[in-house]
# Entry
Amino acid sequence: MGFMAGWWRLIVAALVVAASGRLPSPAHATPSVPSEAQCSEETAKNERLYGIPARLLNSISVVESGRYDRDYKATLAWPWTVTSQGQGKYFPTKAEAIAEVRRLQSKGVKSIDVGCMQINLMYHPDAFDSLDEAFDPVNNVGYAARFLKGLYGATDNWVTAASYYHSQTPHLAAAYRERLMKVWDGAGTQVAAYVPPKAPPALKAGKGPMPVPSSSARIDEQRRAWREQQAAVQDEARLIAAAYRQARLGEYQMRRARMVEARKARGLSPDGY
# Structure
């Protein structure tokens, strides 16, 4: 009970920060920015605004609503994404995404994730004033940034905060963290930033590495700590497996010795012949 209460306090702390930092509805995303770039455009802005490590919020958006874009040759977060009952759908337009949410709600479905950052409408009922606002990348990403900032305030660790963005349940958070770190480190899905139309075509096509802003020493340390922790877990698992095999071998040898002694006592061949 105390364990769960501790995690609920983290959730409450994050929600308090999100609620207290909520601003009047800002202007909608610039129409000239294509749909496939609106999420990354807003995550970059909010990373700077809230002091979130470079590409972390963007990486979360890719894990949450990413789909492969042939033009960018990268997986990009898609703003018109709806997920419910374990099934995610990508819609061509905002209007179609809103229509899908209304269809689900008419059937009594309450747990629905929406937009760039897949904000759950049931667990965050006061996040938005309308579905139109919920799907607006400016509002959707802004709320997620404040929520993540609140989790960081409760944990004092960006990697942990990003894990809890998905779930405070340990095994779910751990699985999410592993996937997220691969994206953030660039070892998994590529994260492409929005390239304005005037940029050279080679950059938009993904030819050559995208420039990655340098992280602070503290963030680098947290990444190293995570990798070391993962290595320690793997080492411990190998030691446990080796000890288990050794114990089973010892049990087998003891049973074998008892069987041989029993056969000798009965005047039989030790090997059973």
